[in-house]
Structure formats: C-alpha cells, structure tokens
C-alpha cells in the first residue's frame, strides 16, 4: 500500500530522538511538518531546523485539532483528552513505528515484553550479524526506526514498548515475540492491566511466525488466529530449559543445545532470553552454530544485574534497568549469598502493586533502603526491614558505612527513574560513579 503525505498538515509530538527522526524523515520527502514538546526546554531543541515551526511548554490544542496526521512520540500518552478529541474528529494518530512499517522492504523481527526485550534484541542482532546478515537494530533500543531505513540492511530487528505499539497498526513482522507480560505502566492505561496486555499482544497481528511464552499461550491463542506459532518456557514447549544430572541445558524438542555452564550470563531469566534468541534465529534459518557461539560469549548489557564494584568482599550490583516489580523479584532470586542483601528500591512506582515482594523479603537476610517519589510508601510494605531515605545518594552513603564482607548491595529499584533522573541509564551511571567514589 502506498502512502502519500503531500498536502497534509503533519504534526509531530515530542522533540526527543524519535521526534527529530520524524522531522528528518518528512524533510527528505520535501514535506514541512510542525513539532510540539510539552517541556519548556527540550534536550534537542537546537536540532530543530530553522524552517520548521515549533512550540514548547504544552500541547498546542489548535495545532493538534487542525492537523491531518499526528506522529506521537512514545513518551506522550495517546490517551490524553486532547488526543481522544482529535481521534473523534478522524485525525490520524500514529507512531514512528507505523511510518517505518509502511516503508520497510526487508524482514522485520519484532520483540516486546515487560522484561528482557533489550537483551533478546541485542542477542538476535549479534547472532544474525555473525551469520552474515546486514542488520539494523532499533526502536526502543539503538536507532530510531526511521533512521534504520537509511542503513544498508537486509534484516530489521526492532524492540518495541507498549507505548510504541499503542499507535502502530500495520506492522507486518516476519517473526514476532512477546517474552512475558507482567504488571507495568498501569498508570498509563485507563483500563489497567488488561489494556496493557492487549496492546503488548497486538505485535502478533500480521506476523508470519509468532513466538509465544507457554505460560501465557491460552490467553493469547484465544484472541489471535495464528498462522504459525513456536512456544517456549515449559517442559511441553518447542524450546525448553531442562535439568540433567544437576546441569541446566537449553533444549529444542528435548534435544540439548547449550549447557548453561558454558555461558557467561547466569540466571533463569537470562537462560530464557537465550532460548528465545535461538528460537528466533532458527526461524530465519540461521545455522545453529552461530547462535551457540554468540550466546556462549554474550555478557550482560549495562545496567542489567551488572557487578560494578567488588572491594572488601562486598559486591555492588547495578540493576538500574529494573523498572518494575518483576525485575526486582528476578534480581533477588539470582542472589545466592550468606551475607546481607542491601536493596535500593524506589523511584516512581507507576501505581504498581509492590505487595507481592513482601514474602520475598520475609525469606531473605535483607535490609531495604527506599528512596525517591514513592519511597515512603514502599518502605511501609515490610516495615521490619525497611527504611525511607530521600535520595539514592544518601542511601548509598549510609549503606557504605554499614555493609560488611560477604554482603551484596543491589540497586534494583523496581520503579521508573523519571522522578529524579532522565532515564534508567542516568540512574545507573550515577550509582556506579557514586559507589566508586565512596568505596
């Protein structure tokens, strides 16, 4: 289907990297869009070309309601009242992913899920590149997707958040995967968890191959007419994690692929990530040896359960990518120590329910330092072992004076960082710098 944007009033919402990529996309077509940002001082304001009209500080209602096409950045909720009004007026509201999907000429691998999507996207990209593909990795990681169209690629790998999928309608993936779905970003969705889940699983629409977590297969298969699906996660799945003589193996149809002892990354969640990466690459007929060799040598991405300092027999772990309750549970499950766990928990909880952590805390030798916007309420979940500290910096300073050999200090906040930091990367880098200075 061909799309013609000439003569249309086009408005871009958001001046982040996505917004800038949208401007450049339309300029190359000889079209002048307008752009708005809610911030009074957007980071990339100086990158707006002089011939582009812009407004900052709020969402200009007149500009929105007089538009024919609006491209919305993922940081802006498509459920805002003014955007609902625009939809009622039949104004088209789409994402940059939708623009990309309309033009992409090569196979697309689409990866989403509450947790693990960056790791799987990166694993798949490295396997495919090692196998000789000219890959482009983007979306919620790497390049904005519209910039990927300019690269000499023959395989697109895109990581997708629910925010991006809200306004994506014609994405046709060669392979689509939803790694998992757990409560996250509930404050974004008026109808709560079920709406979040529906948006996540929409990635399966129009996909040739759907890779599905067996733990959720019943819920998904009821709603989607799947041409072909491949399962992972349980012993009855196509791809499984199995135990043989106290060793853990990644398997396909009960046949061993990799002994996890040969992998650099550890933990059940990472074994699942590797398993899904193999499943994806099998579907595009990549020689299994490329998958095995790449996964054996793959190490954790920054800010994902990453040991950043070890001194006086004390481990300091940066898991700043932990932005929801499930992330923190996974991190705690992966710690097998005799000493005390000093957990740094806090930020913007996004209205999520943290009570499920209570039974974890009861079983562990743990002290919890809760910080940030929702730190005070988080500290009330398990008062016996929790304390509220206003900032991450104050918490680190206090812990550094109390931790002893054999202990682990774990930053796994379980919350968004946006109350005190620009993003989880900035939070993790701040924590790393602080720990190295203090220790």
Automatic annotation (TrEMBL):
Residues 111-280 form the Mur ligase central domain. Pfam families: Mur_ligase_C, Mur_ligase_M, MurD-like_N. Its main location: cytoplasm. Pathway: Cell wall biogenesis; peptidoglycan biosynthesis. It is an enzyme of class 6 (ligase). GO terms for molecular function: ATP binding; UDP-N-acetylmuramoylalanine-D-glutamate ligase activity. The keyword Protein transport does not apply. Keywords: ATP-binding, Cell cycle, Cell division, Cell shape, Cell wall biogenesis/degradation, Cytoplasm, Ligase, Membrane, Nucleotide-binding, Peptidoglycan synthesis, Transmembrane, Transmembrane helix. It is found in: Cytoplasm. It catalyses: UDP-N-acetyl-alpha-D-muramoyl-L-alanine + D-glutamate + ATP = UDP-N-acetyl-alpha-D-muramoyl-L-alanyl-D-glutamate + ADP + phosphate + H(+). GO terms for cellular component: cytoplasm. Coiled coil: none annotated. InterPro entries: Mur-like_cat_sf (IPR036565), Mur_ligase_C (IPR004101), Mur_ligase_C_dom_sf (IPR036615), Mur_ligase_cen (IPR013221), MurD (IPR005762). ATP binds at residues 113-119. GO terms for biological process: cell division; cell wall organization; peptidoglycan biosynthetic process; regulation of cell shape. Belongs to the MurCDEF family. Cell wall formation. Catalyzes the addition of glutamate to the nucleotide precursor UDP-N-acetylmuramoyl-L-alanine (UMA). NCBIfam families: murD. This is UDP-N-acetylmuramoylalanine--D-glutamate ligase. It comes from Buchnera aphidicola. The lineage of its organism: Bacteria, Pseudomonadati, Pseudomonadota, Gammaproteobacteria, Enterobacterales.
């Amino acid at each position: 289907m061909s799309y013609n944007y000439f003569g249309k009033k086009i408005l871009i919402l958001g001046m982040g990297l996505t917004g800038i990529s949208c401007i450049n996309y339309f300029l190359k077509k000889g079209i002048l869009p307008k752009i708005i940002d809610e911030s009074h001082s957007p980071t990339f304001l100086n990158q707006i070309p002089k011939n582009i009209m812009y407004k900052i500080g709020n969402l200009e209602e007149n500009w929105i309601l007089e538009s024919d096409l609006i491209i919305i950045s993922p940081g802006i909720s498509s459920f805002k009242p003014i955007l609902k009004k625009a939809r009622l007026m039949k104004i088209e509201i789409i994402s940059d992913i939708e623009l990309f999907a309309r033009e992409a000429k090569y196979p697309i691998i689409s990866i989403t899920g509450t947790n693990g999507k960056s790791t799987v996207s990166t694993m798949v990209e490295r396997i495919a590149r090692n196998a000789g593909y000219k890959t482009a990795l983007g979306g919620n990681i790497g390049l904005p997707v519209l910039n990927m169209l300019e690269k000499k690629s023959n395989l697109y790998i895109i990581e997708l958040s629910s925010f991006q999928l809200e306004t994506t309608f014609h994405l046709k993936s060669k392979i689509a995967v939803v790694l998992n779905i757990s409560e996250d970003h509930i404050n974004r969705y008026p109808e709560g968890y079920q709406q979040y889940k529906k948006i996540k699983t929409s990635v399966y629409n129009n996909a040739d191959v759907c890779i599905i977590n067996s733990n959720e297969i019943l819920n998904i298969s009821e709603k989607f007419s799947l041409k072909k699906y491949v399962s992972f996660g349980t012993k009855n799945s196509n791809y499984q994690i199995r135990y043989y003589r106290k060793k853990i193996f990644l398997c396909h149809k009960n046949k061993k692929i990799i002994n996890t002892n040969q992998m650099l990354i550890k933990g059940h969640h990472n074994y699942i990530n590797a398993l899904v990466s193999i499943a994806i690459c099998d579907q595009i007929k990549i020689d299994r040896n490329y998958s095995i060799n790449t996964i054996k040598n793959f190490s954790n991405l920054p800010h994902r359960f990453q040991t950043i300092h070890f001194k006086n027999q004390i481990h300091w772990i940066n898991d700043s990518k932990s932005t929801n309750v499930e992330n923190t549970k996974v991190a705690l499950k992966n710690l097998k120590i005799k000493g005390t766990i000093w957990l740094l928990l806090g930020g913007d909880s996004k209205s999520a329910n943290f009570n499920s952590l209570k039974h974890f805390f009861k079983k562990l030798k743990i002290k919890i330092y809760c910080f940030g916007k929702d730190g005070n309420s988080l500290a009330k979940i398990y008062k016996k072992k929790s304390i509220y500290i206003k900032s991450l910096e104050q918490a680190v300073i206090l812990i550094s004076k109390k931790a002893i050999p054999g202990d682990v200090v774990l930053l796994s906040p379980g919350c968004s960082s946006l109350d005190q930091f620009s993003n989880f990367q900035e939070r993790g880098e701040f924590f790393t710098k602080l720990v190295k200075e203090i220790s």
